[in-house]
Design goal:
homodimer, 556 residues, alpha/beta, Rossmann fold, GMP Synthetase, Chain A, domain 3, 2 domains, 8-stranded mixed sheet, 16 helices
């Protein structure tokens, strides 16, 4: 039986229309970083009008048509917000470029997406200009904000000034009614292996995700809020907060390129946001800044931390030293990114609440979850049985963008046969739906149908007073498939032997998880960003470059 | 360009699965009204298991198949919640019957919907039993809770006990994946004229509406909340709050049939809900009860009032005398019902905030609004220009249910040519998107392409010290189309004449709105529920039964 409800699509243009009318008085404030100069403030009404002008400019002047890609290489600012609204609303696809990527990856991504236009902040022209000769699809470069344009001299693309381009154009646009399942925005994951992979968000997924961000169980954004999105708009759409804010009438404080602790502290004290969102490292820096030079940050009711696991000590320090409540959240590019949010349940003690806050959080209704068991099937939600997290939902990717002329593709290691996303994260789910992640799937040791957490073993080993660093990797084993190899860096002058370290572990983990293979190494190999580089250890082991000792209990 | 997101339908079964797993520990508590007896508490996990049992019973035992209608004639209780989840999730259509309707309307509605099963509370058997001989489609009556079953003796339908029917059946159900645009629930409007009209909510509309109810700009329901839905579950699905609560993990306190002020006050003090929802009359009674016999109602962070305009004095009294913040909301059966919610904007003074709270509220992103101007076209949002409110959105009706074998129908007076719902309400919208309703469209006076608010004129007239009551109706006018006729009831012994009353009005409304036709009457005719019955006045005028005096200014 058909319902009698109206069939109205969930689109970004609806968010634009709503925000710029019902919430026309809400504001987007961009920090200029110029001492003594007030930040630039625009109302949602003005942002909406300028978004219409931008759409006219892109369509009428630059010939953007259909679902062509318009890229942004921009900081968080009002002009980026205008692009966020205008490009999807006109039916084109917003492609946010991650300005922190290596140049060759950036060029690969632009070419893969076949971007026709790039809107770039003036301060980022030096980053873009050298790439342009490798970007044959890019016909137009639109420069927003001050910057040195000399590097663009002689480039094949036409160069425009953002303000000149939109000036004088109509401040209204008859936004087309697109199919809610059409692509609205494109974002590439920057995997450490293989080519970057594009996730094409739909109007529907952005709309539903925005509603979820504004729900009480997520960030509860409302018209009385002022959001500081420190997380970049090129990083999973700043976690969806700009679209969500425009939907809820939440004003925004845009930090532009001033992401260092001192200006962040200053803008919080001056403009008084009520909620902020950032990755842990940025907040670690902000904490040190606030500890050193106290500021009034009492306007913040919450700070959302995601993108990487937040150290519980950081959460506690913010709360205890600065009265800031941290909301821990988990997600990834493929999940739009809202996957879980860690609000403690009602009626628990303060200490229990801290336990819940340290988890990745609880799933909202639109994110269905299951834990693939190492031996096949699925694990129970008992808070103990670990499995690879798989998720399903209307804002979860079901494939990757194949490029301008290609079909989307679904690699088996990323998607299950029945279409769920394999997150590559291993963890447990408690009976009340809280997710705790322990490992990346590639870092667990698959031993006889069970999984052993390398991270868990490492953390225990590094708790031994003689151990400076420890890295545990899976190595092939005839009987069990894989077994753990423990590589250990001892502190200077420390003398602990393998049996002692193994006995130390035996008190802390199940017997079948204890490594039999041990090697002392001078230092754990690291990647360029300082993470353990386990590929190197596995290779060293395979090539016989490690001095491995077999250690088992006499009683075994 | 197609997005790469998963295509996952928004369905009630997803709400059911989510609530009964992630929030399995949340609870539905039903008030029993038995002194000294604890209310009956069930976890969401138990409710989910019982919903599965109910679905098995309906399908396997009673043969409910496809999109057949299963009706409920029930109070707010846990069993009704089970029906709310099980019936749509199995692909059937939940039809909530309004137990306050006259018997003939109730029978008409059951027959129009072709209900196959009716689940009825034992206490309501005396209401249902006499109707059964007129209900040929009803094959099964399922009785839940204690009651006298004698009236059902000899009825043609098979009679079942709810608990016996579901007992022992499997506690899991392989819910089918239905199309999100299929009907999930059916609710009839009880219009004062014509046959009742059915609105068939879709899975999609219920899902999106639930997300909106849980947003910060609506009621912000979360897992830490305990909701008291006083508004009946047969009244626009208790404003969508049961499904929204199950989605958010919000526990519920169900009042069953104990809707009188004293038990409500007692259950609030005892079970300590954090938020309640009810129509103004119920809360008027609760206020009197609390004033007379103070109770601890401090657990309530908010009370949502809708269904009829809430007198500002009632809001203030709750806040000032009992510390309860009232949230005013507007909607109708055709709008699921969430149309507007009156949260004052940030940064206004306390007195300004009261002004905003007294409006119908602000539109959420999914409800698009426009004001049809009396002369055609649409009114600006200036807070002054009045028009008939038309709305559009994914949880707004676009037609009415035509009955089991009929196509949906779209009467012109209810839907615009381009598919918007004509609400029949007249009002203004402020530049910041706040709706103020002043009249029903049928009560405004359409004078020379402008609208005159009869309610506005009446309120001003009743502000005159000599006036006891006043009713203003539209009467035909050769020059202007319609003009206002003011009928006035003077207080005993009062002597004010028409010129004085007209001069009093002239200080308060625009000159062109002043009535020229006046009549003194002994009392304003009333309907059975005490509302002004303007049909009678219009008929008396047409038939020359009123003693009408023409009054104009000497200067005109």
């Amino acid at each position: 039986m058909l319902s009698t409800m109206q069939d109205v699509p969930l689109t970004v243009s609806r968010i634009l229309r709503h925000g710029s009318t019902v919430h026309s008085g809400s504001t987007v404030t961009t920090w200029t970083g110029v001492p003594g100069q007030a930040p630039v403030r625009r109302t949602f009404g003005e942002v909406g009008a300028r978004a219409a002008q931008l759409a006219h400019a892109l369509g009428d002047e630059l010939g953007v048509d259909g679902d062509q890609r318009v890229a942004t290489l921009m900081w968080n600012n009002a002009e980026h917000m205008e692009a966020y609204l205008a490009i999807p609303s006109m039916g084109a696809v917003l492609h946010t470029l991650n300005l922190r990527l290596p140049a060759d990856q950036l060029a690969w991504i632009v070419n893969h997406a076949a971007d026709r236009v790039i809107i770039v902040n003036g301060s980022l022209v030096p980053l873009l200009a050298p790439l342009l000769p490798q970007l044959p699809t890019v016909e137009h470069v639109v420069v927003s904000g001050p910057g040195d344009l000399t590097p663009l001299a002689g480039c094949a693309a036409r160069v425009h000034d953002y303000e000149e381009l939109i000036a004088g154009r109509p401040v209204a646009y008859d936004w087309p009614e697109v199919d809610e399942r059409d692509a609205a925005a494109l974002c590439y994951t920057s995997g450490t292996t293989g080519d970057p992979k594009g996730v094409a968000y739909s109007h529907r997924s952005i709309y539903l995700h925005s509603m979820q961000v504004n729900s009480a169980e997520a960030f509860a954004l409302g018209a009385a809020d002022l959001l500081l999105p420190v997380v970049p708009m090129f990083h999973v759409n700043a976690w969806g907060t700009p679209h969500a804010s425009f939907m809820a009438g939440t004003s925004m404080l845009m930090p532009d390129r001033f992401l260092q602790p001192a200006p962040l502290a200053e803008m919080i004290e001056t403009v008084r946001p009520t909620i902020a969102a950032a990755v842990p490292t940025i907040f670690q820096g902000l904490l040190a800044e606030l500890d050193a030079r106290p500021r009034d940050v009492s306007s913040l009711r919450s700070v959302v931390i995601g993108g990487a696991a937040c150290p519980p000590a950081l959460m506690r320090a913010f709360q205890e030293r600065h009265g800031l409540r941290v909301i821990h959240a988990w997600g990834m590019t493929e999940t739009s990114p809202l996957g879980t949010v860690a609000h403690p349940p009602a009626g628990v003690s303060e200490e229990e609440a801290w336990g819940y806050r340290a988890t990745q959080g609880r799933f909202p209704a639109s994110v269905e979850a299951r834990l693939a068991a190492p031996g096949g099937g699925f694990q129970p939600w008992d808070g103990e049985s670990a499995g690879e997290l798989e998720v399903r939902g209307p804002w979860i990717a079901g494939a990757y963008f194949g490029g301008a002329a290609e079909e989307p593709f679904r690699p088996d290691d990323k998607f299950s046969e029945d279409g769920w996303l394999r997150t590559g994260d291993v963890g447990t789910i408690s009976p009340d739906g809280f997710l705790t992640l322990t490992d990346r799937a590639k870092d667990v040791i698959k031993s006889g149908g069970e999984w052993i957490s390398s991270v868990d073993l490492e953390n225990h080993l590094m708790g031994h007073p003689d151990v400076a660093e420890a890295a545990v990797v899976a190595v092939p084993d005839e009987k069990w498939g894989e077994r753990p190899l423990a590589t250990v860096v001892l502190k200077e002058g420390a003398t602990a032997g393998y049996p002692e370290l193994r006995a130390f572990l035996a008190e802390r983990v199940a017997r079948w998880q204890l490594p039999e293979r041990w090697a002392l190494i001078p230092a754990v190999p690291k990647t360029s960003v300082g993470k353990f580089d386990k590929k190197v250890i596995r290779r060293q082991y395979a090539e016989g470059d490690l001095d491995v000792t077999d250690v088992t209990d006499a009683t075994e």
